[in-house]
Amino acid sequence: MGAAFITPGEIIENSSNLTPGKGTIEHEGKIIAMVQGNVIIDSKSNTVSVKNDDEMPTPKVGDYLIGVVDRLGEKAATIKIIQIEGDGRSILPEHQYADIYVAGIVDRFLPAPVDAMRRRDLVRVKVTETNPVLKVNTRDDENCGVLSALCPQCGEDLYAKPEGDKNVHCPQCDYSGYRVLSNGFGQGYNLEKNGAAAYNRLKQRWSKEFDEIFKAGIPARSVLLRADHRFDGRKITRPNFEGSGGNNQRKERPKGTKLFVGGLARSIDTEKLKEIFSKHGDVIDAIVMTDKETGNSRGFGFVTYSGKASAEVAIKELHKFDLNGRKITVNNADDKSSSKREKKPSGKKIFVGGLDWNVNEKQLEKLFSKYCKVIEVSIPLNRDTGKSRGFGFVTASEDSADKAIKALDGFELNGRKIGVRESENKSKQKNNKNQRSTRELQARREEGIED
Q1: Which CATH number fits domain 64-213: 3.30.450.40, 3.20.20.140, 2.40.50.140, 2.102.10.10?
Q2: Cα separation of 307 and 323, whole Å?
Q3: pTM score, two decimals?
Q4: Per residue in 74-130, pLDDT tens?
Q5: If I label 318, which of 109, 154, 228, 391 is the partner at 20 to 30 A Cα–Cα?
Q6: Which one, of 74, 68, 75, lies nearest residue 118 by Cα?
């Protein structure tokens, strides 16, 4: 069965009864053409495809591709493919990007792709894999590498000249650097036998100047990537990140009394933390620790006061203070003595489940106070929303806890029946490594196995 001529992007048919074939994809329940041509529907297999006499070129292992460096990561770069060399036709979107890993760039030690190529560099690469993603490299082939590059400081075309490890230079400003050069660098598609690839210094050690750049760490060199968007000629300075962990560490600790602040909600950042603690004295330093990968708060931080008296006032006023729905912990970060550590309340800990989201600690304390001597009440809150997680804990005196458990298990609170039981002692569970889980014990009983 045949159909009329169709162009890319046109909806061919709903996918409820048909399967997409060659030259088509399925998207949101519809089959869409990826290429232009005639629609062919195979009634036997219920497959729809687009037949194009002038088929789209498909990269194969060993093919040479021309592309532009699009993104640079720590271990790999992404190349946006322009065309298969020698074939001027456009390629399919699924072959538009290829990955090149740092080990496949040049035959010498290379910490990261940014040390041998930059965004917008025109490159010639060789296909090494096509599935599941397109992978390429420039290693071990002098015809592969950078064909053309712009100065990251002023935007002028760079020229090739060997000067130690530096093999590219700007004719307008003082920039010079290193690229993995192709024999066709500066020659367009023409390749020379003894061209610029000879300047790559394969298998050789880097100079002290480049060792210092590498020593600064990848975060420092990432500044140069952001600078690629700048063409005003300003000189780029490289910050030294050696021995640091980004924004979470300092080279020199400020003098004063340092406090640890735990239990912070994710919405509390460094500025907010400093603002809250500044109400109780002169804060000379504050920081909320963040995850180095995601940048999200890790739920704790540090505050340093210029004087000890202010720090003690802050501990007194802010320890167990309710901040954005969470009770924070504040203590002296330098006090390691066990006598100063906060002691857990003595008594029996009771777990209370099935709580209505609107039940607060005061309500829970009021309820349990009718049946036992309450020592402490806590309802854990969701870190992101600050709302109740639907359960809580009540610490009661040993002689009255069982009475409360018996009286309140199944009690209806705010329209919901709550579950009340003695909280499991995790430390005992950890000490007893051979203790069987409840599920395992039940399974053994069902099988008639006695312990």
Answers
A1: 2.40.50.140
A2: 24
A3: 0.44
A4: 889 999 999 898 887 778 778 889 999 999 999 998 888 989 999 999 999 999 998
A5: 391
A6: 68
